[in-house]
Amino acid sequence: MKWKRTGGMGIQLAAAVFWMLPLITSSTGDIRHHGASRARGWRAGTQQTVETAANNSVSNITAQLGGTAYLHCLVGHLSERGQVSWIRKRDWHILSSGKFTYTNDERFQVLHGEGSEDWTLQIKFVQKRDNGTYECQVSTRTGIVSHYVRLQIVVPEAFILGSGEHHVDLGSVIHLICIVEKSPTPPQYVFWYHNDRMINYDATRGGITVETEPGARTQSRLTVRGATLKDSGNYTCSASNTEPASIHVFVSEGSNKMAAILRRNTSAIHGITTSATCLLLLGTALMHYGLR
Ligand SMILES: *[C@@H]1O[C@H](CO)[C@@H](O)[C@H](O)[C@H]1NC(C)=O
Ligand SMILES: *[C@@H]1O[C@H](CO)[C@@H](O)[C@H](O)[C@H]1NC(C)=O
Ligand SMILES: *[C@@H]1O[C@H](CO)[C@@H](O)[C@H](O)[C@H]1NC(C)=O
Ligand SMILES: *[C@@H]1O[C@H](CO)[C@@H](O)[C@H](O)[C@H]1NC(C)=O
Questions:
Q1: Cα 38 to Cα 50, 51, 117, distances in angstroms
Q2: Where is the Ig-like domain (predicted)?
Q3: Ligand 2 pocket by C-beta < 6 Å: which residues?
Q4: How far is the CA of 193 from the centre of ligand 3 (A)?
Q5: Last residue of a domain, one of 154, 175, 198
Q6: Lowest mean pLDDT: which of 149-153, 158-162, 163-167?
């Protein structure tokens, strides 16, 4: 396997996409909200007009299945009695209050540095069921102020370009491309299998190359030169963070297009009526579909 970009291997699985929505509690206790562009100005100390009404504000974040999600809640200067709680809306579970976590699920943790204005809910090894809305509830002197974070879990997917099967002539090149998408953190590896055998490093067969370009949309190219009848079969692309994807490769002796024609016509096969040849074709087609 050849990783074209050298940085690709060091990428942490824990990386996650997150959104910062700065919230400030004013001295009167209401949370105020800077727009995204103003946030930078605020951080740089150039205070500009502050947008009001951040109570019930909503932000969206995306995290990859298996990765780590950081749900930020920036509250300014809390009054002495101020308390920050995280609540999961799905089941109204109070996950944390202050720095304490009220769940047996050890994937949840509140990150808060001394003197920091950020109360981040960290969720490790995110699962599909973590998808949903979380409320950061801040009790202030004037009442409860809420900030909602919508966490969306993205599930990386792999697929091989082309339809479910691929036809090549004897002696030609089998060329397959596997795409891994919806994967903000690229997969750590992409392995190719011919039936049950991993062929990335296959030295006995020879003429096989795998080139993988990791990215948000990872592309892995398999090249098998000098196709023989033995190279027919099931080819599977298996990435570290997805379900595998498969395609069937048929290596045939030049003009043997029968299989291809047969399959192309299966949707119209009920239209075929009389001759014995046609019945034979129908039988073969049904067997093919029955076996799938
Ligand atoms: C969050 O996502 C919802 C729909 O999923 C959308 O309507 C809303 O505008 C998004 N909010 C932000 C701040 O991007
Ligand atoms: C997550 O929830 C949103 C709606 O809140 C839904 O549109 C989306 O399909 C869900 N994703 C998963 C992976 O369940
Ligand atoms: C924030 O909004 C909620 C719901 O609309 C309301 O009950 C609460 O009093 C508001 N908090 C403040 C401090 O105004
Ligand atoms: C191909 O092989 C993979 C892995 O062995 C298997 O999961 C998949 O079902 C097979 N696909 C077909 C079409 O036979």
A1: 8, 9, 17
A2: 22-146, 156-248
A3: 128, 131, 152-153, 155
A4: 57
A5: 154
A6: 163-167
